Amino acid sequence: MPIAWRRVIWIAMAAAIAFAQPGHAETDTLRILRPIDLAALPLLIVEHEKLIEKQAEARGLKAPAIRWSAPGKTGPLDSLTAGQADVAATEIVPFLLAGEANSGTPQQVRGIAALAQRPYVLVTRNAAIKTIRDFKDKDRIAVPSKNSGPAVLLQMAAAQEWGPENYGKLDPLIVARSDEAAAQAVESGKGDIASHFSRSPYSDDELADPKIHRVMDSFDIAGPHSASLLAATARFHDANPGLCAAVLAALSDANKLLKDNPGHAAEIYVGMEKDHDIALEDLSDMIGDPDLAYTAAPAGVMRIAEFLRRTGRLKRAPQSWKDWFFPEAQDLTGN
Quick one: which of 215, 192, 209 has its CA closest to 142? Predict the structure, then answer.
């Protein structure tokens, strides 16, 4: 029997055993890494409303004690593979790269679900820049890191503008800065950083300044795509298939709340993000924006993965977005 089929049967048997034993706990403690930001809003709602606990109990599982924490100096994916966390929110490009890095091992990273479709927005305070063709050698564009979603989407934009072989044309202009530091630099008008490729709320705050304008966003380049996803290792998933299913169902419950009552979702966010400076009404409108969809279905995975393969960062040609996700997500309408 092929190894893949033996694994599928084993997972199904483990899930059946879990369902057959009321009160059975696959793990007593669930450690989840999540930032407190809008890209992780479904997780914040899951946390606030105790939706994983409710879904676990509905499946005959003893609700685990959940330890929620923000990522530290160790990145979320490194924390997963090191066994320091069980489940973590991560951005799409690092997620795709990590999925191949430990392929076939217990540390292999796969997705439980997507969290949010949110574009990266390229803004600048340089009035001469209308499109990416207007950037000069002296200009600088801030992104979180050279392997971040904004950095890769900027390369995709360059490939579309100047041809596939010139995908790195803007790389000399890229500087790595935290979104907080980059936004401060762009808004102050001091220093050499006048442009920033990031997502809301940073881009929204920047665009509130009339001296700053939008150049493009990543949906213009790759179409709607997931910006953040929820991931775990094969080791954790295979030992806890029922709990992983409960996590996915909890996210679906959170997404329904987001759609039906964005105002309540905004109140939850305000209560958990103590340092926010966004008006509740503006935050509610932002959450309800149809371009900023909260959905468990992954989007844009294949387009970005194919680009990473063409530029040598993925070794294998991707066959399906499902290759990066656990069985529980396979029925989602992803792309």
Answer: 192
Pick the range with the lowest mean pLDDT from 11-15, 222-226, 280-284, 295-299: 11-15
The amino acid at 92: I
- Omega before residue 119 within 30° of 0, cis: no
Helical packing angle, 149-162 and 301-310, nearest 10°: 70
**Is residue 23's pLDDT more than 50?**
no
Task: List b or e across 69-88, with b for residues whose CB sees 16 or more CB atoms inside 10 angstroms.
Answer: eebeeebbbebbbeeebbbb
**Nearest alpha carbon to residue 52 among 326, 256, 244, 219:** 244
Asked whether residue 9 carries a pLDDT value surpassing 70, the answer given is no
pLDDT one-digit tens code per residue, 84-123: 999 999 999 999 999 988 888 999 999 999 999 989 999 9
Instruction: Tell me the pLDDT band of 235, cut-offs 50, 70 and 90.
Output: very high
3-state secondary structure 179-203: HHHHHHHHHHCCCCCCEEEECCCHH
Measured distance CA(174)–CA(187) in Å, rounded: 18
Sheet arrangement for strand 87-91: 65-69, 29-33, 87-91, 226-233, 109-117
pTM attached to this predicted model: 0.86
Dihedral angle of Cα 294, 297, 302, 307, to the nearest 10 degrees: 20
Query: How much is the pLDDT for 8?
Result: 44
Q: What is the C-alpha to C-alpha distance for residues 52 and 243, in angstroms, rounded to an integer?
A: 8
C-alpha to C-alpha distance for 191 and 80, rounded to whole angstroms: 37
Mean pLDDT in the chain?
89
Report the pLDDT averaged over residues 308-315: 94
Query: What does the block give as tokens for 281?
Result: 């009404």
Radius of gyration, CA atoms only, the chain: 20
Domains and CATH numbers, the chain: 3-118+225-329 (3.40.190.10), 121-222 (3.40.190.10)
Number of Cβ within a 10 Å radius of residue 260: 9
